[in-house]
């Protein structure tokens, strides 16, 4: 009896020492309810409750990780995760600046307007390519406006100068368009320019397809940077789908049938019929055939019954 009671209360999670003390006080013939009341009065707790009361020092570690790093962030917690669905942006700085300056002045303010427009959309990877000689003081044949903007964008790691140097008093300039197309192609991004890069299209067939599909043209309207809502034409993707890695397809909108209830096409009609939502969309001819088949089949069964002995 003593052993059976010990096993019973041990299964409940009580320690053997507490059980022995209670049995010595109450006797081995004490009922289980009395023993349980005495254990509770003594303040003894099952092992499971004690484990819950004590704060666990062990931490769960994701499979494949050796230690928990304080800077670890799960998908959806990082602020930059929302920008992962947006394509990288590579801006032709010379083209944008000259376009904003009406092809007369290299207007750096136009580059700032373009960068701000993509920042507001949430793009984090934005690169602007400008020749290095634009750092030099402006001259009469190449005027520059708001040149301090280039220094600010360079500090923000947005502006990149393409190399150039002087050899025997002559300036040797590297082809900045090649930098622009190459970086945009490797990053699978979008080129912002009104230039068609025809020479580079003829140079590389892969670049030809990429320039045709990823070139975003623009306009400046009263110091406002405005790309088109349909970058690839009327039947192409929208601007938001063009700039995102995962385009969202629009919901299919049904056009109501111009004939309305007089339509005789039935389920073959390509238009929407609100009155046929809960009806089988059969054509008029099919409905007549379905109605005529029922009485004919019933009449044939009656004839068979009359002929049978």
TrEMBL record:
Cofactor(s) the protein requires to work: Mg(2+)
Sorted UniProt keywords: Endonuclease, Hydrolase, Magnesium, Metal-binding, Nuclease, Zinc, Zinc-finger
Zinc finger C3H1-type: from-to: 251-276
Keyword Transcription regulation listed: no
Residues of the C3H1-type domain: 251-276
Record bears the keyword Cytoplasm: no
Entries under PROSITE patterns matching the protein: ZF_C3H1
GO MF terms, alphabetically ordered: hydrolase activity; mRNA binding; RNA endonuclease activity; zinc ion binding
GO cellular component: cytoplasmic ribonucleoprotein granule; nucleus
Family, per entry: Belongs to the ZC3H12 family.
Protein name listed in UniProt: ZC12D ribonuclease
Organism: Spizella passerina (Chipping sparrow)
């Amino acid at each position: 009896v003593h052993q059976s009671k010990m096993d019973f209360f041990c299964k409940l999670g009580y320690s053997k020492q507490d059980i022995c003390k209670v049995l010595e006080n109450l006797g081995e013939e004490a009922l289980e309810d009395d023993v349980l009341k005495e254990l509770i009065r003594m303040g003894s707790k099952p092992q499971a409750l004690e484990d819950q009361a004590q704060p666990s020092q062990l931490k769960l570690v994701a499979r494949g990780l050796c230690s928990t790093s304080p800077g670890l962030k799960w998908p959806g917690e990082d602020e930059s995760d929302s920008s992962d669905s947006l394509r990288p942006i590579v801006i032709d700085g010379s083209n944008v600046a000259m376009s904003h300056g009406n092809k007369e002045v290299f207007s750096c303010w136009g580059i700032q307007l373009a960068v701000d427009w993509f920042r507001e959309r949430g793009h984090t990877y934005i690169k602007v390519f400008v020749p290095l000689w634009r750092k030099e003081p402006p001259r009469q044949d190449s005027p520059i406006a708001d040149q301090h903007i280039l220094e600010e964008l360079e500090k923000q790691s947005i502006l990149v100068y393409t190399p150039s140097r002087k050899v025997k008093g002559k300036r040797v300039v590297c082809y900045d368009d090649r930098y622009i197309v190459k970086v945009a192609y490797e990053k699978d991004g979008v080129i912002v320019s009104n230039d068609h890069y025809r020479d580079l299209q003829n140079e590389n067939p892969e670049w030809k397809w990429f320039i045709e599909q990823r070139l975003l043209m623009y306009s400046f309207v009263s110091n406002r940077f405005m790309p088109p809502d349909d970058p690839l034409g009327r039947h192409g993707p929208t601007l938001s789908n063009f700039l995102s890695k995962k385009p969202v397809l629009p919901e299919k909108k049904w056009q109501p049938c111009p004939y309305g209830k007089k339509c005789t096409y039935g389920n073959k009609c390509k238009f929407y019929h609100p009155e046929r939502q809960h009806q089988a969309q059969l054509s008029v001819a099919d409905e007549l055939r379905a109605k005529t088949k029922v009485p004919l089949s019933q009449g044939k069964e009656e004839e068979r019954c009359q002929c049978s002995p």
